[in-house]
Design goal:
It is a single chain. The chain has one domain: NADH Oxidase, CATH 3.40.109.10. It has seven helices and six strands; from the N terminus they run H-H-E-H-H-E-H-E-H-E-H-E-E. The strands form two sheets. It has a four-stranded antiparallel beta sheet with strand order 1-2-4-3. A hairpin with a 7-residue loop joins strand 5 and strand 6. Helix 3 packs antiparallel against helix 4.
């Protein structure tokens, strides 16, 4: 689905848009078993990744990069994941081994979000990692707004050293997760959300912090 380039010559301090608020209020990840193809084409994916990269980034470190899995190469990556799972779990049933690799083949496209901090930069690594998390949320939102369903997953493969090596990560990099982007016709059920009264408090100068008084 082709999309037009966003204008960046009319930046404003705020852009009220009820439709965006409505989308955010209804944001919901799609479980992987409910995802299928197609995923975004190359032009649409480029636009999604460009939007995902518009995040707060203290001192413009750019501590992330994207690793895209699609087509035949995605299938080969799925095979590598199956082989690694089998080695890590020698007693696993063949169907379970196959199922691990198939996680990579359900959606149309898989995007690996790589946390790539500059360990020598004066911006703390923690702040850089927060930026990567913001990229991940933007990636989901941009995918949804482009007409695609998606889910952000980690799992054992996100931390496995051999998988890191196969997919070309450096010693200081790690996967923030894998974003499975595709199509789904399923009506999703709402999941539980936190009550604001349990997570919001107001600091007060008298030293008494009041909770839930929104």
């Amino acid at each position: 689905m082709p999309v037009s380039n966003s204008r960046v010559d009319d930046l404003l301090p705020c852009n009220p848009d009820p439709s965006v608020l409505d989308m955010l209020a209804k944001r919901r990840s799609t479980p992987l078993p409910l995802l299928g193809g197609p995923g975004p084409d190359s032009q649409t994916l480029e636009h999604i990744l460009r939007i995902a990269s518009r995040v707060p980034d203290h001192r413009k470190v750019v501590p992330w990069r994207f690793l895209v899995f699609e087509g035949r190469d995605r299938d080969i990556a799925a095979g590598e994941i199956s082989k690694r799972f089998a080695k890590n779990n020698p007693l696993a049933k063949p169907e379970d081994v196959q199922a691990e690799g198939m996680k990579f083949t359900r959606a149309g496209v898989v995007v690996g979000l790589v946390s790539s901090p500059d360990m020598e930069h004066k911006t703390p690594v923690w702040e850089q990692e927060l930026t990567v998390g913001a990229v991940g949320q933007n990636l989901l939102l941009a995918s949804n707004a482009s007409g695609f369903a998606g889910v952000w997953l980690t799992g054992w493969m996100a931390t496995d050293p051999h998988i890191h090596q196969i997919f070309g990560l450096s010693k200081t990099e790690r996967f923030a997760g894998f974003f499975h982007i595709g199509t789904s016709d399923n009506v999703l059920k709402e999941r539980s959300r936190p009550e604001l009264s349990a997570i919001v408090s107001h600091w007060r100068s008298d030293g008494l912090s009041a909770s839930g008084d929104l």
